[in-house]
Design a protein that fits this description.
Number of domains: 2
Structural class: alpha/beta
Radius of gyration: 20 Å
Strand content: 15-25%
CATH topology of the largest domain: Rossmann fold
CATH architecture of the largest domain: 3-Layer(aba) Sandwich
Bound molecules: guanosine-5'-diphosphate, magnesium ion, zinc ion
Shape: globular
Strand order of the largest sheet: 8-9-10-7-11-14-15
Helix content: 25-40%
Order of helices and strands: EEEEHEEEHEHEEHEEEHEHHHEEEHH
CATH class of the largest domain: Alpha Beta
Length: 357
């Protein structure tokens, strides 16, 4: 949807989760790298073409009507001009593999990984994307293990624009330190994104190890429980991504799925077969608590993924972990493809059946 609508459309800001009427105010803010601040440009005397061109690079400040967010924040100037925005949050305990999975997933999406589904991807928030690329994607490509997520931050990782046969929609990704999910204060910035979430990726490490390599068994998953309790009534589409699956790449059900590599079509029966295998795997490995999203949400799929494709090891640089054999993300787009099918961004009879009981 482009152009001016007669009544302002209500848009939910993915950063503060407030809803406000989207404006086509002629003031467009542009980030100035030298001044390290936004310049506010009055475009009221500009031609529509020129203004639209600036809007592609510009921002609008969120009015944050509830006034609960001290830091002023900006959204891409065209954020409200497309189809309904999607907000996808990654939920999981500390060190479960959320940041690596999100990085591998977004990287692959930018590398045209959704082309088989007729979906193209580009950055909508260029500033945010540049910072995400420098901090995460490039580090990952250098083979460096990524730094742990700071607690207490809740800012969106990246805001992309997806274009496909079903329309054009902004999609915002959130990555939150696991510890923060325990904070039940609704005003906690770190978990506020849950209010605006439209889909969730629950991340469970397939084989959890402590710092000295010993396997940790988790019958409960507190991070999942807390998020499920807050989201249950919203009946969102959900996926469970069992990550670090490379650690079990020779174990029968895992091996069979990893060997397939990336899929190129939506096949509801295949997704159901994978979900069944992951379900059985979690059940038998004593991780029943991580099946909670499957019980709680009407549409849910389960996937085996590996963000790095192999183990990180101590690198030459002191204290820095690296992936000595490089990284080989495997099936990292499958959780996203399922969400896109369940949210109608991928259409067709197969997509309609994805995640159905
Ligand atoms: N073997 C393997 N290790 C991984 C994978 N993804 C992450 N890790 C390791 O798991 C640790 C925690 O990952 P991270 O993404 O920071 O977890 P987060 O705290 O949930 O964001 C890191 O030290 C990574 O080296 C993977 O796909 N395979
Ligand atoms: Mg993290
Ligand atoms: Zn806001």
């Amino acid at each position: 949807m482009t152009g001016i609508t007669p009544f302002p459309r209500l848009i939910r800001c993915p950063i503060c989760a407030d809803e406000f009427p989207w404006s086509h105010d002629p003031i467009i803010s542009v980030w100035d790298d030298e001044k390290r601040d936004y310049l506010h440009i009055d475009t009221s005397s500009w031609s529509a073409e020129k203004r639209a061109d600036l809007a592609q690079r510009g921002y609008r400040q969120c009015p944050n009507p509830s006034g609960d967010t001290q830091e002023e924040h900006y959204l891409p100037a065209t954020f409200g001009d497309f189809g309904d925005p999607m907000v996808i949050g990654l939920v999981g305990g500390g060190a479960s593999g959320k940041t690596h999975l999100l990085t591998a997933m977004i990287r692959q999406a930018y590398l045209n990984g959704l082309a088989p589904y007729d979906i193209t991807v580009k950055a909508l928030d260029h500033r945010r994307h540049r910072s995400f690329r420098e901090k995460f994607i490039e580090e990952f490509e250098r083979g460096a293990a990524l730094a742990g997520t700071d607690t207490g931050i809740s800012d969106a990782a990246d805001i992309l624009l997806l274009r496909g046969p079903a329309g054009v929609r902004p999609i915002t990704f959130f990555d939150v330190a696991g510890e923060d999910l325990r904070d039940i204060d609704a005003r906690n910035r770190s978990t506020r994104f849950l209010i605006g979430a439209t889909a969730v990726i629950f991340v469970h490490p397939c084989d959890d190890r402590g710092p000295d390599g010993q396997v940790i068994r988790r019958t409960e998953n507190l991070a999942f429980d807390l998020a499920v309790e807050r989201l249950r009534s919203k009946r969102l589409p959900a996926v469970v991504a069992v990550t670090k699956a490379d650690r079990l790449r020779y174990a029968p059900p895992v091996e069979r799925w990893l060997r397939r590599g990336d899929e190129t079509s939506v096949d509801a029966d295949r997704i159901r077969a994978e979900s069944r295998d992951v379900y059985a795997f979690l059940h038998h490995s004593g991780a029943g608590g991580s099946l909670e999203p499957y019980q709680a949400f009407p549409r849910c799929t389960l996937h085996f993924v590996s963000a790095s494709g192999g183990e990180a090891a101590k690198g030459a640089a002191a204290g820095k972990n690296v992936f000595p054999r490089g990284f080989h993300p495997t099936r990292v787009l499958e959780p996203l493809v399922s969400i896109l099918a369940m949210t109608g961004m991928i259409t067709g009879p197969e997509a309609e059946r994805v995640g159905m009981p």
